[in-house]
Amino acid sequence: MNLLFQQYLNIDEWLYRIEVKMQSKIGFVVNPIAGMGGRVGLKGTDGVFKKAVELGAKPVAPNKAQEMLKEFISNFSKNDDIKWFTCKGEMGGNELENAGIREIEIVYDTDDKNTSAEDTKKACKKFLDLDVDLIVFCGGDGTARDVFKTVGKKIPILGIPSGVKMHSGVFGINTSATAKMLHEFVNQTLTIGDSEIMDLDEDLYRKGEWNIQLFGIAKGIVEPTYIQVGKTHYESVSDDEIKDELTEHIIDEIEQNNDFLYLFGSGGTIDYVARKMNLYNTLLGIDAVYKKKVVGKDLNENKILKLLDRYQNAKVILSPIGAQGFILGRGNLQLSPEVIKKIGLDNIIVISTPSKLVHTPVIRVDTGDKTLDKQFAELEFMMVVVGYRLSRVVKIQNKLKNHV
Amino acid sequence: MKRNSTLFLKEEYEELVKKSIDWKLRILETGSTPHSMVDGKKVIMLCSNNYLNLSNHPRLIREAIEAAKKFGAGSGSVRPIAGTMKLHMDVEKKLAKFKRTESSLIYQTGFAANAGLIPQLAGKGDIIISDELNHGSIIDGVRLTKTDRAIYKHRDMGELEKVLKDADKKKYNRILIITDGVFSMDGDIAPMDKIVKLGNEYGAMTYVDDAHGEGVIGPDGRGIGAHFGIEGKIDVEMGTFSKAYGVVGGLIAGSQDLVNYAYNKSRTWLLSGSHPPAVAGAQLAAIDVLETEPEHVKNLWNNTKYFKKELSSMGFDTGFSESPITPVIVGESSKAKELSNLLFDDGVFALPIVFPMVARDKARIRTMMNAGLTKKDLDFALEKFEKLGKKLDII
Q: Cα B286 from chain centroid?
């Protein structure tokens, strides 16, 4: 086994982790109106709650939150020692009580009948003051963004998927997966890693424009990566160590192709690589590098196309969004179909930490160009770089089926 | 700067002890026999690799003694200088004949074979394609190269072909596919016939680490090549003398070109002392026993079949093993450890394998069969498994 194959820990170490665990402090907040817009065709609930209600929208999130909690209680949490901090009523307290959880403390209450983003933020601020280990929230990308705005990278966050849009990497794939992740976090078998916060500009979307932006990099819950250090002894490796390997790989790659222009995509992994190479990098944007020097910062499509005219050979380095797996079409619309066609599918380098890949079973592309998407689909798979000169097969799926 | 140059030795060891992850060595007060004395307790041995019980075979012991008497306790040198004895050459000739390959080469250990040969087979501009569950010695061998590496899902030939296609498209010079033969956690077997076919199709070299298959699978225990009827078609059949053969040492079998190349290039082979005569004498006898006494392999498989069948009929999940490695899957890690401890108290020695070595809900006791165990021994062990399985709500 090597570090890409994660796994393996000595049983005593494993049991030690379980035995020494402390009580976990979890902040729990539900955005009760999340997901309501979807049922009535609004593609989101941000700013249009009244309209959604007029159209007959019913609450979705409270049920989803309860579903996750019940799953957590019945299947996973028999011995988990948790102190829950939450909000009054539908913002968390009701859901916890309905799931049969009694060890809760209401730390936030609002008089306003119609809760808003501000309430989510205020509740999260309270959780931070109380020094919780993790915030579990129920909602969609909009809620994730609100939580992230308050929490930043201070503590990890975990989303129960319940919104209209869930492109962010902080969500479990479904309520059951979220319950399992929560249990594993409490038992210290999962660790903390980078997770993307994505969001669609809903005003633009309702006008027919599709623009999903990478909003920021939060702390999410990820599977640790282990390396074998003895016959049955394994040590977990930090994500940074893996990213150091990825950096070495990219340095080798660039040195071997000295006449290539490299476009550095967005996101935490690529940002780390660029910074390790002492290159300026735009976390949420696209930068261009030639002979290990930055030749373009935070580029838009036009600027990229101009650079591609100037430099004959180019490659682009991308990293998938956690869980969703998008490498194109989410958060990087600058890499337009024209840009990708010019670069060529063979010149796309996808890098990822193995821990991210555990929860990202397929790679997705949604370039907005059907022919190009088809070309990706025909590839069937991509080799994703997961360590120094180390890659593995990941399937390509053309867009998320039935995805908004 | 003032340094304490050796402080880390103590500190890191103490950290291991604190976390209870230091190795607590079990001490055998007998030989590695079906009934062993371990830490003062008499136990049925279900976790040694001495599958055929050849380490206790009178012929191996006799030949080891004879060789030591005749040629001394040590070989005096590394193989390339003055440490190649006729005895070593005899083992290699006999092994090649047994494996039905053109030639063979003995390494000091199995680890030395992988760590020494793999880095010589691929370098810059080449790619090594590896099963995700390959053994650590393969991984270390691969790490010593500057080659690109790609991983395919365990035994997934569709995925292997995808990687091969990609490697072909990227115009690598050499492509090397490496896999374990019998996988040591689940006891399943690599589909070597299909791997060789794919290798031929894409011009890739094939390399199998058959440590748990040598002496165990295939007619007369001739290993994975014989098991699939593709003897001489796998480019490198690597194995060990330390498991079913009952001695110690690594081996490779293949073409004369492979052997010529390997002993001129493998640094582990070139720079380690050669096996003492007693080891070579016992190796020679082990092959001889396999050729002339088919009952050992037969007993091993009879025992294996009986043990697996009985465990299954009790309601235990024994996974998908195709070899004498039988996992007894119990679920949670803590349960596997508890079962292992209780089994030991009751006189059965079998180790637990837990997450992250296997999936979180697939923690298990790994049992390894021995041809020297009698039906009475097996029934004794099975009775303990049944009793404790019920006690722990596993069955």
A: 16
CATH architecture under which domain B58-292 falls = 3-Layer(aba) Sandwich (3.40)
Residue with the larger pLDDT of the pair A368 and B381? B381
Q: Is B203 helix (H, G, I), strand (E, B) or coil?
A: coil
User: Does B35 score more than 50 pLDDT?
Assistant: yes
Structure tokens belonging to residue A11: 């049983």
Residues A209 and A259 in one domain: no
* ipTM exceeds 0.85, yes or no: no
Structural domain includes residue A25: yes
Q: How far apart are CA A189 and CA A2, in angstroms?
A: 19
Domain assignment of residue A341, yes or no: yes
Tell me: do A248 and A212 sit in the same domain.
Answer: no
Residues of A in contact with B151 (CB under 8 A): 4-5, 386, 390-393
Which of A4, A11, A230 is nearest residue B352 as measured by Cβ atoms? A11
What is the domain range of residue A393?
A: 238-398
Q: Would you give the DSSP letter of residue B189? A: B
For the domain bounded by B15-45+295-391, which CATH number is listed? 3.90.1150.10
pLDDT at A8: 35
- Which residue of A3, A4, A9, A10 to mutate against B (max B Cβ within 10 Å)? A10
Domain boundary among A201, A227, A253: A227
Nearest Cα neighbor of A379 from A367, A360, A389, A365 is: A365
| Number of compact structural domains in chain A | 2
Residues in contact with B359: Cβ distance below 8 Å, sequence separation at least 6, in sequence order: none
Which of the residues of B are catalytic?
184, 212, 243
- pLDDT of amino acid A1: 30
Residue A233 lies in a domain: no
Q: Is residue A166 one of the residues assigned to a domain? A: yes
Mark the ranges of chain A whose per-residue pLDDT is less than 50.
Answer: 1-19, 400-404
Q: For B377, what's the count of Cα atoms within 13 Å in the CB-facing half-sphere? A: 19
B128-149 as b/e: b if 16+ CB within 10 A: bbbbbbbbbbbbbbbbebebbb
| Residues A123 and A179 placed together within one structural domain of the fold | yes
Rg (CA), chain B: 22
Residues A209 and A354 in one domain: no
pLDDT score recorded for residue A37: 67
Interchain contact, B169 vs A15, CB within 8 Å:
no
CATH number at residue A21: 3.40.50.10330
A221 lies in the same domain as A261: no
Contact assessment for residue B286 and residue B58, using Cβ atoms and an 8 Å cutoff? no
Residues A223, A248, single domain; the answer is no
pLDDT reading at B277 higher than 70: yes
A392 vs B contacts (CB less than 8 Å):
132, 150-152
User: Is there a single domain that holds both residue A164 and residue A247?
Assistant: no
